[in-house]
Amino acid sequence: MGFTFEIEAEAGAARAGRFMTPHGTIETPVFAPVGTQATVKAVLPRDLYEVGASLVLANTYHLHLRPGDTLVRDFGGLHSFMGWDGPMLTDSGGFQVFSLAQLRRITDDGVTFRSHIDGAILKFTPEYAMQIQHNLGADIIMAFDECAQPDDYDIAQAAMQRTHAWAQRCVDHHYQHGNPDRQALFGIVQGGIFQDLREQSAHFITSLDLPGYAVGGLAVGETKADMLATLSFTVPCLPPNRPRYLMGVGQAEDLVEAVSRGIDIFDCVLPTREARHGAALTRYGRLNMGNLRFASDSEPLEPDCTCYACQHFSRGYIRHLVKAKELISHQLLSIHNLAFLIRLMKEMRQAIIQGETAFAGFKSQFLADYRSMVK
C-alpha cells in the first residue's frame, strides 16, 4: 500500500486534507501526541483513542538505546509493541544532535553520541537512522538531519548543507533497503531563520520527490516572531500536494498561526509535560491547578470539554491531586491537555472546510480568547 494525500478544502493558505497510511487515514490539520519511549506519558492507548488522537510520535534515538530497535522489530514493530494500531511517526534522532550537544560530536559522516543512560559510545549515520526506523516500523519516518542554532548564519548554513547530504543518503538507503509502500520517508528543511537558506533548503529537499516534508529547526530558541516569519517564507516553497509537518511545536496559539500559514502536521511534548507540572491547557490560557483559588472550585477544567477528566472531576478535586502529588493528576491533566489540542485541530479543520471567512473568524476569536487570560 502506498501513501496518498488529498486536499479537501483551503482557506487562504490553511488546508484541510487527508493523508492515507497503511494504519489508517490522518485528517489534517492534526496534532500528534509524543510517545518518546513508545508510550505517551501517563496516557493509555485506550485514552488516546478516546480523545481522538489519529497519529502518535515515537523517538528513534531513545528507543534504539532502550529497549533496542531490533527487540521492537521482533515484537512486530512499534504498533504491536505498544498496543497502538493507528498511524505512527518516528523522528530520526536529529533533534538529539541539538539537545544533547554536550554528549555528541558531528562529522560529515554522522554523529557520535555518548549514551545518556550508560555512557556507551554509539554512532548515528543517515543509513543507521534509516535502519533503526525500518526496525521500528512507523508509517512516517524522518530523514536524519542536523538541527542547529537558528540565528547564527554560518552555523545554520553548515547544518543545512550537512542535512542535504544526509537526506540524499537516507533516500538512497530507504529506497534500496526499506519498504516505501509501508513507510513514507519525509525530508526536513533546515536553514535557521534565514530566508535565503530556507529557500535553498526547500528547493533541494523537495527535489528528492518524497511523500511529505517537514520544517525543522524551529521552536529551538528563536523568538516567536522569527518562527512565524520563517514559516511565512518557507511554507510557500513546499509543494502544495504533499503534507507539511512543523516539528516540535505545540503552543495553542502557535498551532493556529502555523495552520493559517499552511502547516498540516504537528507534534510536541508540551501537553503531557505541562500536565506533569500541574497545568491545564484551555481555550482561555494555561491554568496552574496548584493555585489556591481552585481549591473549592466545583467547575470542570474547561466547561465545554468532553474529555474524561472534565466529565467526571472538578477543578477542586484535581487541585487536591496536584497538591497531594498523586500520579492520577498527571493522567487526568494529560488526557485533558491532549483533548484540548486535538479538539482545536478539529475545530480549525471544520472552519477551513466552511471557507476563508469562517476560518479567519475562528482564528481571530480564538487568539483573542486565548491571549486574554494566558497565565
Question: What keyword list fits this structure?
Answer:
375 residues, alpha/beta, TIM Barrel, 2 domains, eight-stranded parallel beta sheet, three-stranded antiparallel beta sheet, 15 helices
At CATH's second level, what is the architecture of the largest domain? Alpha-Beta Barrel
Low-confidence stretches: none
How would you sum up the global shape? Answer: globular
Q: Find the CATH superfamily of the largest domain.
A: Queuine tRNA-ribosyltransferase-like
Helix content: 40-55%
Domains, number: 2
Fraction in beta strands: 15-25%
Given the helix and strand composition, which structural class is it? Answer: alpha/beta
Find the count of extended strands (DSSP E, 2+ residues): 16
- What Rg, in angstroms, do the CA atoms define? 20 Å
CATH fold label of the largest domain: TIM Barrel
- Report the biggest beta sheet as strand number plus sense, adding barrel if it closes: 8 strands, parallel
Mean pLDDT, rounded to whole units?
96
Give the distance, in angstroms, between the N- and C-terminal Cα atoms.
Answer: 46 Å
> Biggest sheet: strands side by side, in what order?
4-14-13-12-11-10-6-5
Number of helices: 15
CATH level 1 name of the largest domain: Alpha Beta
How would you characterize this protein structure?
The chain has two domains: 16-180 and 187-208, Alpha-Beta Barrel (TIM Barrel); 275-372, no CATH class. Helices cover 43% and strands 19% of the residues. The protein is built from 15 helices and 16 strands. The strands form four sheets. An eight-stranded parallel beta sheet has the order 4-14-13-12-11-10-6-5. Strands 1-2-3 form a three-stranded antiparallel beta sheet.
